């Protein structure tokens, strides 16, 4: 079930549609091709790729895409975004395809959405609303549902102007004593503000709890590896391949929403924690970025980040840029393509889908990454390259290793076993100490592992 927020403001005329976005609804998808400088955070290049992504978003919640096309917009109309002739083209397509829904792959103001619904006589949903629907349907945990509801309320609060038929109705107050009472729209806004305040308090508690868990993991002797990437790049499939878990992994945008963590073994490292995160996407609604920031902050506590890329996608370069913009917002990197505070490995996934010539060309690029970040060609489905990826992660986590000398009591078996499991033991000999038998070891450890050993 979608985590819906009751629509406090839907008082439209009877000629306007009242149904919500539902599975099985037929829709026309329209991409407004804004002519001019590249919009920040938006996929550039082939419009067909953008249209394909928009259709994928619609299908992700069971909408049947009856038709999809782009419309060039040279002059943005404040009232409707599109011109009258363009609106008529959309209306004709909707009638011919018997579509009850029009999806606009862009941001619509409340006024534009209302006017388009009035002219088209159909439900209209913009890109932000569509992504909110997906997130609402996919949220599986209490935290995820709270985050989606907060984002939905924030989105809805800006659309109270749609209730144009009842703005004069008033609730409470006595005109002969203190002027007019509280208008309906003011009451609606107050209800939304109060609910948002309660959700923020609950999320603050979740954030504090998550912070405590993060601190506890950092004190534990295990490194954390975070998977990030564009939505549908194959993160969850790779997660399942590495951990043997059964996280939802389908050919759908935002198949995974709630973060998942599992223990894995790496070459030379007894145990590590692998974290799967929500996928990124171009034009991610600002409401969702804010609501899910606590979840995304898990990435900032990782010891290594694996950026999973759909290398077979024609838009793989633009998708990489979008992911790195989010990482830059989180402070992980200074700017897209810049240096990072946390080691980043690129996993070039879906290698099995490349043609032979394309694979050969891209393999040459593996060693000459402009960012200098290591890249490993893999297929999470077939398992190709997985061993190489694990070796690269292990080498990254143990990079900068130094030689340390330890003198342990014979009874410190747990610490002794930890050193053998997480470091390269160069020497290990039994000696007689003042208080009994001891072990003298020389071990090569990464600085972070030396810090963890002090807490074992």
Primary descriptors:
456 residues, alpha/beta, Rossmann fold, 4-stranded parallel β-sheet, 15 helices, 39% helix, 21% strand, disordered N terminus
SSE arrangement:
Elements (H helix, E strand, L loop, with lengths): L25 E9 L12 H13 L4 E10 L10 H13 L4 E4 L5 H11 L2 E4 H12 L3 H16 L12 E2 L3 H4 L3 E2 H36 L4 E6 L5 H9 L16 E7 L2 E8 L9 H6 L1 H4 L7 E7 L5 H14 L14 E6 L6 H11 L8 E3 L8 H12 L4 E8 L3 H10 L1 E10 L2 E10 L1 H7 L3
Parallel strand pairs: 1-2, 1-3, 3-4, 7-9, 7-10, 10-11, 11-12
Antiparallel strand pairs: 5-6, 8-9, 13-15, 14-15
Helix pairs in contact: 4-5, 5-7
- Let me know the largest β-sheet: 6 strands, mixed
Helix content: 25-40%
N-to-C CA distance: 44 Å
Shape: elongated
Rounded Rg: 27 Å
Q: Strands of the largest sheet, in order across it?
A: 8-9-7-10-11-12
Structural class: alpha/beta
Task: Enumerate how many helices there are, as a single number.
Answer: 15
List how many beta strands DSSP finds: 15
Into how many domains do the coordinates divide? 4
Low-confidence stretches: 1-19, 38-44, 162-181
CATH class placement of the largest domain: Alpha Beta
Q: Write down the overall mean pLDDT.
A: 78
Provide a concise account of the structure shown.
The chain has 15 helices and 15 strands.
Task: Characterize the structure shown.
The chain has 456 residues and is α/β, with parallel strands linked by helices. The chain folds into 4 domains: 112 residues, Rossmann fold (3-Layer(aba) Sandwich); 63 residues, no CATH class; 178 residues, Rossmann fold; 52 residues, no CATH class. It contains 15 helices and 15 strands. The chain has a 6-stranded mixed beta sheet with strand order 8-9-7-10-11-12, with helices on both faces. A 4-stranded parallel beta sheet has the order 2-1-3-4, sandwiched between helices. A hairpin with a 2-residue loop joins strand 14 and strand 15. Helix 4 packs antiparallel against helix 5 and helix 5 runs antiparallel to helix 7. The protein starts with 25 loop residues before the first strand and ends with a helix.
């Amino acid at each position: 079930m979608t985590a819906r927020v009751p629509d406090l403001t839907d008082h439209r005329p009877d000629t306007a549609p009242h149904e919500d976005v539902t599975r099985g609804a037929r829709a026309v998808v329209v991409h407004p091709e804004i002519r001019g400088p590249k919009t920040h955070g938006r996929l550039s290049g082939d419009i067909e790729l953008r249209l394909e992504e928009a259709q994928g978003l619609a299908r992700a919640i069971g909408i049947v895409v009856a038709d999809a096309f782009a419309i060039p917009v040279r002059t943005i109309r404040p009232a409707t975004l599109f011109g009258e002739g363009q609106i008529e083209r959309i209306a004709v397509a909707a009638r011919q395809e018997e579509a009850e829904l029009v999806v606009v792959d862009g941001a619509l103001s409340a006024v534009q959405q209302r006017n388009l619904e009035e002219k088209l006589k159909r439900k209209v949903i913009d890109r932000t609303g569509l992504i909110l629907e997906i997130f609402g349907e996919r949220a599986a945990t209490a935290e995820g549902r709270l985050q989606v509801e907060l984002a939905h309320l924030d989105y809805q609060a800006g659309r109270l102007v749609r209730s144009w038929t009842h703005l004069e109705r008033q609730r409470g107050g006595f005109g002969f004593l203190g002027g007019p009472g509280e208008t309906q729209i003011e009451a609606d806004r107050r209800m939304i503000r109060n609910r948002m305040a309660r959700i923020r308090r609950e999320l603050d508690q979740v954030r504090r709890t998550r912070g405590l868990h993060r601190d506890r993991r950092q004190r534990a002797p295990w490194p954390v590896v975070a998977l990030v990437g564009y939505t549908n790049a194959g993160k969850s499939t790779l997660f399942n391949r590495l951990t043997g878990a059964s996280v939802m992994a389908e050919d759908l945008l935002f198949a995974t929403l709630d973060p998942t963590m599992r223990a894995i073994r790496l070459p030379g490292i007894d145990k590590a924690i692998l974290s799967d995160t929500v996928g990124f996407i171009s034009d991610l609604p600002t409401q969702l970025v804010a609501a899910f920031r606590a979840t995304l902050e898990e990435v900032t506590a990782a010891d290594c980040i694996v950026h999973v890329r759909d290398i077979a996608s024609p838009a793989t370069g633009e998708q990489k840029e979008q992911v790195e913009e989010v990482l830059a917002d989180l402070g992980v990197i200074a700017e897209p393509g810049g240096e990072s505070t946390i080691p980043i490995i690129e996993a070039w996934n879906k290698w099995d889908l490349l043609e032979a010539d394309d694979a050969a060309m891209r393999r040459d690029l593996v060693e000459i990454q402009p960012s200098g970040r290591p890249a490993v060609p893999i297929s999470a489905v077939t398992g190709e390259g997985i061993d190489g990826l694990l070796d690269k992660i292990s080498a990254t986590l143990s990079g900068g290793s130094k030689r340390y000398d330890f003198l342990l009591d014979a009874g410190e078996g747990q610490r002794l076993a930890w050193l053998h499991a997480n470091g390269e033991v160069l020497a290990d000999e039994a000696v007689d100490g003042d208080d009994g038998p001891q072990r003298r070891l020389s071990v090569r450890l990464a600085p972070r592992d030396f810090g963890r050993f002090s807490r074992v």
